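Hey, I was hoping to borrow your eyes for a little while. I'm sending you its amino acid sequence along with the backbone structure tokens. Take your time with it, there's no hurry, and the full record follows here.
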Amino acid sequence: MAKVEVAPLRSWDDFFPGTERFAKPDVRDLQKWNNRVLCNLLYYQTNYLALAIIVFLLVGLTNPLGMFMGATVVTLVFLGSVWVGENKAVIKNFKKQYPSMFVFLVMTASYCVMSMFGGVMVFMFGITLPLVLIFAHASLRLRNMKNKLENKIEGAGLKKSPMGLILEALGQQEENLNKIQDFLESKLKE
């Protein structure tokens, strides 16, 4: 197994350039959109972590107890779902066939548990808002050659990153990175 490496923090000009590097995804080609999101999640993972921490801290300063409770609930639901997904064949097959639905169900379960404790607004702003911002950026940001090469290296197993491990635990990594590799190889040959 390769050593886990944290991706470098990308410059602001690379992370948020002018409008020419952003485009609406093609909603008719879900595979291409999924590849764009996965590649951007892997390439900008440290920037996304910084963004999530900033939003998390801002919301956490307004309601620290609610934020702590929200983070604990989401972490426990996530770890529980990963454990169940690995140990129950039915869940494992569902996770493999419908990875996006699996992530949605984890977030929905977290929301339901949080609503029992009255921390819904903290959950919405502190946990869901960073995820929405990250997904929006990953969906709209066009990839560059550097991004494609970094993803190819990670996909080949030459290096592992924290985001790669999270995506793998959610069932997003294995098949999708193989598709990404095939797509990149065909583009590089052109």
